[in-house]
Amino acid sequence: MSNKPNTYSAVAEVAYKRVRRSRLQRVKLGLSKAPPTAWFGMIVIFLYIFCALFAPLLAPYGEAEIFPEPFAPWSSEFIFGTDQIGRDILSRMIYGARNTVSIAVATTALAFLIGGSLGLAAAINMSWLDQFLSRLVDVLMAIPSLIFALVLLSIFGSTVTNLILIIAVLDSTRVFRLTRAVSLNVVVMDYVEAARLRGEGLGWIMRREILPNILPPLIAEFGLRFCFVFLTIAALSFLGVGIQPPTADWGSMVRENASLIMFAQYDLKAGLTPLLPAAAIALLTVAVNFVVDWFLHKTSGLRDEQ
Question: What are the DSSP calls for the chain, one per residue?
Fold first, then answer.
């Protein structure tokens, strides 16, 4: 038997007031438990956003400023040299962060607006609208998206507006299927049926009853879709139908400086020049995936074994 006195007090338990953490405190607590990979991803994403926002201040030269020395070697004047017509590589990489990332974010947001809205409407309606949209999405997904985008951009022109609209529509098919799948598990809940019986409209049910309950997988999917869109834009620019010059873009920079790789045996730095924008693309993709993996693990309710 233990001689430890019993210190339990019913009065103290009743008088205890539990204080709910603020949103900022919950965010700080969540970040404090983030793994190193998630911190690495968040730091890289922050640096890319910083470069995109302050590109004119960070770049030593203009985006399309031409110097009379094409393919200049790495030096104190041109840190990463110049391209085939004499534009500074470092400046164009900094401006490329603003152009490529901003277009990818806008395209992904539009894809989620289209696919998410139609997916929610199809899940709630469950009638001819659901069948029509599902079969239309099946047809669009049967066509390889990159080839389809190449054909459409060749027809309508390679402007930034067309690029955003075409990729967003093609990518919204994936968002539609995910949104519809996760919404089907929510629309059968009693509180959704109660909202229908109260006479609430379709938009109100989508916004107030279903969307808050499916946000975690959609947010994670937004990060993954951003990576796919980002790589698609870079691939289209590499093929010459994406972001058009003189606008800086990492995909087109790889294509424009690809010929320098064959000179790597004579000048290693020159051979590394076309790999710099490719490395920038790969680094951002890895960073976003690190953050998405952590967010998925955090919202899934799983816990690491100690």
Answer: ---------HHHHHH--PPPPPHHHHHHHHHHT--HHHHHHHHHHHHHHHHHHTHHHH-SS-TT-B-S-TTPPS-SSSTT-B-TTSBBHHHHHHHHHHHHHHHHHHHHHHHHHHHHHHHHHHHHH-SHHHHHHHHHHHHHHHS-HHHHHHHHHHHH---HHHHHHHHHHHHHHHHHHHHHHHHHTTTTSHHHHHHHHTT--HHHIIIIIIHHHHHHHHHHHHHHHHHHHHHHHHHHHHHTSSSPTTS--HHHHHHHTGGGGGGTTT-HHHHHTTHHHHHHHHHHHHHHHHHHHHHHHHHHT-----
